[in-house]
Amino acid sequence: MLAWYGAQPIWWAPLERDARQHFGDALRHTYRRDSLTYELTGLDVIGEPDPVDVRIRFYEDPPYSTYGQKPEDFPRVRARPGALSKHRYSFDDALCLWYPLDPAEQRWTSSKGLLDLIEIVRTHLFLEHYWRLTGGEQGGHWLMEDAPHGIPGSDVCRSSRRHKRRTAAGRGPRPLG
Predict the structure, then answer these.
(1) The domain containing residue 24 runs over which residues?
(2) Are strands 27-32 and 35-43 parallel, antiparallel or unpaired?
(3) CB half-sphere exposure, 96, CA atoms < 13 A
C-alpha cells in the first residue's frame, strides 16, 4: 500500500525546507498516522501586541470538503481561536485564506512551500486585526479585495484574494519609525 503524501519525504522535505531555515526551532511538527501538523510559536504580526501561535494541519483524508483540491493543497490553519473575523470557516474556526475555486495561481498550493503559507497567514492575521480595529462587524474595513461570498450549497466563508507581496526578512515585518 502506498503511504499517504504526508509520510513521504519527497513531499514534506521541500514543503518545510524554507520555513525551517526561516523560523528554526519555533517551527515544530507532529506526525500521526493520518495527519501532519506544523505548529509555529510566536509569529510576529503587525499591530498585534503579542506574537501569535499558528497550527497548520494536513490530512490524508480531510474531515472537511477540499472543493476539488488535492488534500495537500487545502490544509486547515488555525490561529487566535475564537477571534472575531469575517474570514474564517463557521464550522471549525479555521482561517479562510483563499477562495477555494480560484485557479492555482491565485491560491496557495503545497508546491509553493510552508513559508509562503505562513506569510499568507501573517497577512491574514494583520487584515483581521485591522478589520476589528476599524469596526469589525459594524463596518470594519478589510484592506484587500474580497473574493465572491461562499460557494453555492456550502458554508464556505468569504476570503480575501491573495495579492503579491514581499516576504519580510527575519521573524516578521516591522513598522517604520
Answers:
(1) 5-138
(2) antiparallel
(3) 28
The answer to the question of residue 15 being in a domain is yes
pLDDT tens-digit profile of 9-53?
999 999 999 999 999 999 999 999 999 999 999 999 999 999 999
- For position 145, what pLDDT does the model report? 82
Summarised one tens digit per residue, pLDDT across range 47-95 is 999 999 999 999 999 999 999 999 999 999 999 999 999 899 888 999 9
Among candidate residues 130, 153, 134, 137, the one with its CA nearest the CA of residue 45: 130
SS3 string, the chain, reads CCCCHHHCHHHHHHHHHHHHHHHHHHEEEEEECCEEEEEEEEECCCCCCCCEEEEEEEECCCCCCCCCCCHHHCCEEEECCCCCCCCECCCCCCECCCCCCCCHHHCCCHHHCHHHHHHHHHHHHHHHHHHHHCCHHHCCCCCCCECCCCCCCCCCCCCECCCCCCCCCCCCCCCCC
pLDDT digits (tens, 9 = 90+) for 113-122: 999 999 999 9
Rounded Cα gap, residues 75 and 35, in angstroms:
10
Is 163 a member of any domain? Answer: no
Number of independent structural domains in the chain? 1
Question: In this structure, what is the dihedral angle of CA atoms 47, 89, 28, 121, given to the nearest 10 degrees?
Answer: -40
